[in-house]
Amino acid sequence: MAAYACPKCGMSVGTMTFGRCGRELVHGSLTIDGNAVHISKCPDGHGKIESPMCCGEDMTCAV
């Protein structure tokens, strides 16, 4: 998984794994009410979380 980074302060978050299966989460997105929401999801379909936040904004991930 590519690292998420904060565009304001430069903080970054590296690899995250899903607790139930230990698989590395992959970057994805959902469209909600016409807006793209960045997520990290289990490649085996076990679940997903919203992307990390920093400085009050979603951190970005170069894919």
Features:
3-stranded antiparallel sheet; 43% strand; 8 strands; mainly beta; single chain; 63 residues
Describe this structure in words.
- The radius of gyration is 12 Å and the shape is globular.
- It is mainly beta.
- Helices cover 0% and strands 43% of the residues.
- The chain has one domain.
- It has a 3-stranded antiparallel β-sheet, with no helix packed on it. A 3-stranded antiparallel β-sheet has the order 3-4-5, with no helix packed on it.
- The protein contains no helices and 8 strands.
- The termini are close together.
Number of strands: 8
Regions with little confidence, pLDDT below 50 for 5+ residues: none
- Helix/strand-derived class? mainly beta
Distance between the termini: 8 Å
Radius of gyration: 12 Å
Residues in helix, %: under 10%
Mass-distribution shape: globular
Strand order of the largest sheet: 2-1-8
Mean pLDDT: 87
Into which percentage range does the β-strand content fall? 35-45%
Count of helix runs = 0
> Which sequence of SSEs, written as H and E, runs from N to C?
EEEEEEEE
Instruction: Let me know the largest β-sheet.
Output: 3 strands, antiparallel
Overall number of domains: 1
Task: Walk me through the topology.
Blueprint: E1 4-5, E2 12-13, E3 26-32, E4 35-41, E5 48-50, E6 53-54, E7 57-58, E8 60-61
Antiparallel strand pairs: 1-2, 1-8, 3-4, 4-5, 6-7
Please sum up the structure shown.
This protein is mainly beta and 63 residues long. Helices cover 0% and strands 43% of the residues.
